[in-house]
Structure formats: structure tokens, C-alpha cells
């Protein structure tokens, strides 16, 4: 069909050219004829002035045939203009010079339209990608998308949006949306939605924990907003983020500290497992040593029995054993010399360690003496303050230190209202405790019992 359209156009143009060539040819012949007539008149000398020459050629121009050819040429041209071929990946909207955008979409293929009245505007219905960059692009013309987080920091977003025009709503898109749709509709919508959603998050959430949540919310809003305008959004991608330089450096340091903390926790866990493994290995080694000791004991018992049985066969070998003993003695002597040298070196090392230990002990003892002296000084100050406020304590302390068999009791000086005075008085004067009376002349059984107990104690101790 496309070949037919081109053939019709070529045919129409050719017929137009033929009509024009016919008219031009007739005019050319008339001009040549007029020129010959003028030359002939000049040669005869009869031309008196220019008015005597004929003004019209004898051969007329075939205007009627030319118009017929033009009419014939218009027919294939109109047929060619009425054929519209829409290629794959595109769709068309029929625009009428009278009614404007017509309803319905012209899909890929051949369509017939009214020539000179209807025209077709093609739209790309394949998927398109709108892309922004987080920083200034190296090539001019790229879009830079910058949003503000809750703290007011500027964050660059690298966003990609895959979209396509809805073929069923091309007439609405052509009549209502500015052109081109990608630059005039998609780009402002994407930037606006991201700038509306970004202030709901802090910078660290956008960078790490809630990046996918931000992308999902933005994709939902962009799909709904552009879908109402006949633009189908297939996917919204958030490729990269660009944080401010100062914030990026601080966040990098914080992440390094968190990684170091996690590494230390892992190392601690590994150390604990190594300790547990060492404990298990020690227990296994202990069990192996016990088993080996038992096995060696059994082997020795068997060896002793075997030696007892083989003693009768060992007499011829005694000489060889004596020689072997001599060689072993010589080897032991050499080994002893080597052990003595090693022991001497060990003693030198031990003496150095002992000197260091004595030095550390002397320093510790000096520190202890200083601390003890400070404590004794503080204690003496406290005792001086107590003795200053209670001078009678000196006598008590002296009496306590005279003998460990003395018992000291503090009593009031005046002895009033003290029930043990009569008891002590009767104890030391030889009067029975039951005959003692209080100051008001009444007998108290409790006082009598206490006095008897005190007299019993006084008879036991000097």
C-alpha cells in the first residue's frame, strides 16, 4: 500500500509536470515563431515601427488540454493523500480542519482519510524512559532532581521512569496536554511528587532504611497522577542518591563505627567459642591421658610378666646390656652437661626475674606503708577528737589494757536512779543482795536477781 501511495504521487506529479511542459512548450513555439517573423520583416526593410509587427502567435497555447491534465493529476494526488500508513510502534490521531481532533486511534497499518481535510498526527506508543541525575550531568540538557529532607538538607536523586502513552486516549492527550509530553508533563510531575514526599523523611532514612518506602510511595503517586492524563507508568526506579558532602562524611564515620562495633561483637563471640573449644579439648585430652595411663599400666604388667618369663634367656645378653649401660651413662653425662648449661642460663633468667619481682614488691610495700601511715594518721586524728570530747575514755582504755581478765562497766557518777548500785555495794560490803532496798524503801525482785548475778560473777573473777 505504501508503494501504491508513492506511485500515485509520482503519477500525479508527472501529469502536473506534463501539463506545465505542454504550456511552456506552446509558449516557446509561439515565441520562436514571433522571432522568425520579426527577423524576416527586418530583412525586407518594410518594418516602419514596432507596432507593425504581429503581437499574437499564429499557434495558440493549448490551455484547455493543460487544465484537463491538471484535473487528471489531482485525482491520483488526492488518492495518495487519502492513504495514511502508520508504522509499528506509533499510533495516530486524526485531526480535522473542521471538527478538530477526531475520536478514535489509528493503529499501525493503512488508513483512509479525507484528503486536504483530515491530517494525522503520529505519537510514539512505545515505552519511553525519563531519567534524572543526582549531580550535574557531564552532558548539557540532562535534568537534575534535588529534594529537601526534613532537616532541610538538599539531596540529589537519580530517578528513572518507564512510561508509555495510552493508545486509546491519544485524542485526549493531543487535545489537552502540552507537547512534548515527556518534557512538559512527565518531568514536572515526577519532580513535584518527589519534592512533596521527601520532607516526610529524615536524611538517614532516605539514604538507608526507608529508601524503598519512598520509592514505592512516589511510584504509586506518579502512576495515579499520570494515569489520569492517559500516560501508563510501567516502573519507577530510584537509582542513586547524592548526599551533601559534610553529611556524607559524618555518616561514613558513623557507619565505620557501627561496623567496628559489630566486628568487636563478632570477635568476642569467636573468643568465647574458642574458650569453649579449649575447655572441651582439655577434657578430651584428660580422658585420653587417663585411657593412655590405664593402657600403659596394663602394658607394663604384661611386660613384667614377659620379662619374668624371659629372664632365663637373658643371661647371654647381660654383657651386651653392660656395654649398653656404659654407652647410656656416657650419653647421660653429656646430657647432664648440656642440662647444666641450660640450668645456668635458666638461673640467670630467674635471677633477673627475681630482681624485677623484688623491685615490684618493694614498690608495693612502700605504697602499702604510705597508705597505712595515712590511715593511722587519720585514725589518730579521729581518736584525738573523740578523747577530747570524752576524757573518761582514757581511763577505760588504760583499764582494758592492764589485764585481759578485767571487766569494765561504765556507771553514772552520782548513782541516782541506777538499780545496780545497791547490788554492787552489798557485793563488796558482804551484805546479802536480798536485804538491799531502793531509795524509796521498796523491794524489787528484778533488782535482787541482777545483784545476785553480779555477785556470782564477782566471785568468779578478781
Structure commentary:
The protein has 462 residues and is α+β, with helices and mostly antiparallel strands. 62% of the residues lie in helices and 14% in strands. It is built from 11 helices and 9 strands. The strands form 3 sheets. Strands 6, 7, 8 and 9 form a 4-stranded mixed β-sheet that branches. Strands 3-2-5 form a 3-stranded antiparallel β-sheet, with helices on one face. A two-stranded antiparallel sheet has the order 1-4. The chain is elongated and about 185 Å long.
Give the CA-CA distance, first to last residue. 146 Å
Which class do the helix and strand fractions yield? Answer: alpha+beta
Helix and strand string, N-terminal first?
A: HHEEEEEEEEHHHHEHHHHH
Integer average pLDDT:
77
Q: Can you count the helices?
A: 11
Largest sheet geometry:
4 strands, mixed
Number of E-state strands = 9
| Gyration radius, in Å | 63 Å
Low-confidence stretches: 47-58, 431-462
Q: Give the DSSP E fraction (strand runs of 2 or more residues).
A: 5-15%
**Proportion of residues in helical segments:** 55-70%
Question: How does the overall form come out from the CA principal axes?
Answer: elongated
Amino acid at each position: 500500500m505504501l508503494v501504491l501511495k508513492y506511485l500515485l504521487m509520482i503519477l500525479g506529479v508527472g501529469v502536473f509536470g506534463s501539463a506545465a511542459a505542454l504550456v511552456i512548450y506552446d509558449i516557446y513555439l509561439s515565441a520562436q515563431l514571433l522571432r522568425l517573423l520579426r527577423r524576416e520583416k527586418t530583412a525586407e526593410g518594410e518594418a516602419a515601427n514596432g507596432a507593425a509587427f504581429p503581437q499574437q502567435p499564429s499557434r495558440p497555447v493549448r490551455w484547455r488540454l493543460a487544465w484537463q491534465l491538471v484535473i487528471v493529476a489531482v485525482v491520483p494526488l488526492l488518492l495518495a493523500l487519502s492513504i495514511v500508513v502508520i508504522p509499528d510502534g506509533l499510533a495516530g490521531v486524526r485531526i480535522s480542519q473542521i471538527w478538530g481532533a477526531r475520536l478514535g486511534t489509528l493503529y499501525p497499518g493503512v488508513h483512509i482519510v479525507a484528503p486536504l481535510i483530515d491530517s494525522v498526527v503520529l505519537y510514539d506508543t512505545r515505552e519511553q524512559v525519563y531519567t534524572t541525575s543526582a549531580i550535574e550531568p557531564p552532558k548539557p540538557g540532562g535534568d537534575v532532581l534535588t529534594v529537601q529532607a526534613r532537616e532541610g538538607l538538599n539531596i540529589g536523586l537519580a530517578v528513572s521512569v518507564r512510561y508509555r502513552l495510552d493508545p486509546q486516549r491519544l485524542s485526549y492527550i493531543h487535545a489537552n496536554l502540552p507537547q512534548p509530553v515527556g518534557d512538559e508533563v512527565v518531568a514536572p510531575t515526577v519532580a513535584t511528587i518527589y519534592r512533596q514526599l521527601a520532607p516526610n523523611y529524615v536524611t538517614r532514612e532516605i539514604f538507608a532504611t526507608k529508601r524503598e518506602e519512598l520509592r514505592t510511595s512516589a511510584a504509586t503517586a506518579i502512576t495515579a497522577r499520570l494515569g489520569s492524563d492517559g500516560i501508563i507508568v510501567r516502573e519507577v526506579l530510584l537509582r542513586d542518591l547524592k548526599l551533601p558532602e559534610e553529611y556524607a562524611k559524618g555518616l561514613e564515620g558513623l557507619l565505620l563505627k557501627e561496623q567496628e562495633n559489630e566486628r568487636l561483637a563478632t570477635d568476642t563471640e569467636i573468643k568465647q567459642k574458642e574458650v569453649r573449644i579449649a575447655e572441651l579439648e582439655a577434657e578430651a585430652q584428660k580422658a585420653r591421658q587417663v585411657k593412655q595411663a590405664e593402657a600403659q599400666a596394663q602394658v607394663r604388667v604384661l611386660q613384667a610378666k614377659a620379662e619374668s618369663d624371659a629372664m632365663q634367656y637373658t643371661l647371654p645378653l647381660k654383657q651386651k646390656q653392660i656395654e649398653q649401660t656404659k654407652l647410656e651413662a656416657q650419653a647421660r653425662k653429656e646430657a647432664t652437661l648440656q642440662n647444666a648449661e641450660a640450668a645456668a642460663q635458666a638461673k640467670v633468667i630467674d635471677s633477673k626475674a627475681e630482681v624485677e619481682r623484688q623491685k615490684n614488691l618493694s614498690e608495693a610495700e612502700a605504697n602499702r606503708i604510705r597508705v597505712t601511715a595515712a590511715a593511722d594518721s587519720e585514725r589518730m586524728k579521729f581518736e584525738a577528737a573523740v578523747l577530747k570530747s570524752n576524757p573518761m575514755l582514757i581511763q577505760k582504755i588504760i583499764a582494758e589494757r592492764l589485764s585481759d581478765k578485767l571487766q569494765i562497766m561504765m556507771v553514772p557518777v552520782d548513782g541516782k536512779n541506777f538499780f545496780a548500785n545497791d547490788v554492787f555495794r552489798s557485793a563488796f560490803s558482804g551484805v546479802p543482795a536480798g536485804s538491799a532496798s531502793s531509795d524509796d524503801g521498796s523491794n524489787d525482785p528484778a533488782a535482787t536477781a541482777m545483784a545476785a548475778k553480779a555477785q556470782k560473777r564477782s566471785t568468779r573473777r578478781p
